[in-house]
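Minutes, structural biology subgroup

Action item carried over from last meeting: produce the structure token record for 3-keto-5-aminohexanoate cleavage protein (Thalassospira mesophila). EB confirmed the sequence was re-checked against the source entry. Recorded below for completeness.
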Amino acid sequence: MADKVIITCAVTGSVHTPSMSRYLPITPDEIAEQAIAAANAGAAILHLHARDPKTGFPAPDPALFMQFLPRIKDATDAVINISTGGGMTMTVEQRIQAAQQAAPEMASLNLGTMNFGLFPALNRKTEWQYDWEPEFLENSRDFVFKNTFSDIEIMLAKLGEANGTRFEFECYDVGHLYTLAHYVDRGLVKGPIFLQFVLGILGGIGADPENLIHMKATADRLFGDQYRFSVLGAGRHQIPFATMSASMGGHVRVGLEDNLYIRKGELAQNNAEQVFKIREILAGLNLEIATPDEARAMLGLKGADNVSF
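Output recorded by EB:
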């Protein structure tokens, strides 16, 4: 398994708005269908958010998650990873409630408070399907993505300790690695650790190859052989940085949460397209993809029989 690559597919997220792509899954049915197709295409982990099915607005309601989580579980053996990143208008308590109720094998955990700028997208669109979309993007100028030490400790306790959920630790900057090391030193986080290096978000570390090399070297120093890493390259950086990650011995993340395109100027018509594209690249690098059960073994997960959906 050492040479096998875990593909994570982030299906919808809370960054892109419906007007940006007609292919972005919004309703529970669309999220379920695209997640299942991505798993069938080779994604071992499915990173999931929910949206209001009438407006596409990011939604934390566990009842919405429960409209697609059981369907995905019944149709695939993929690892289900529930986001705690939520959306711009949500409190931390709202962001974790779906994962608290569902007790998934994995949940995301963001490792630091930061600016999170979505407003540049206003320059690329002039017509909007919903009134909330331009306001949502504009409000990101004055938005602080809150992930304090207290917030992190709440997630570690209420999701990890209470439910046996393990984490996709999302690292938007080098300092986030030192925050995680603090919790490792305190014994609140134990290996195997799964890091998601996030590059290219306005407010976080830039999408420069040198930055990824530095983050990897820092993680090596802090965590030794107790971690595995994956890379999220935002927007046009998705495939180049996934390729770089795989060539460095890491894992990959694709999906419409992170990038709406399959190639320059052409919208991806579904998440599975991006999974197939990265699979072709991995094959060209003579790398095999990990099955969901191989991913479970690598990441020390509790198994699909021990969730609450």
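Discussion: Residues 12 and 222 are 32 Å apart (CA to CA).
Next step: EB to file the record with the rest of the batch.
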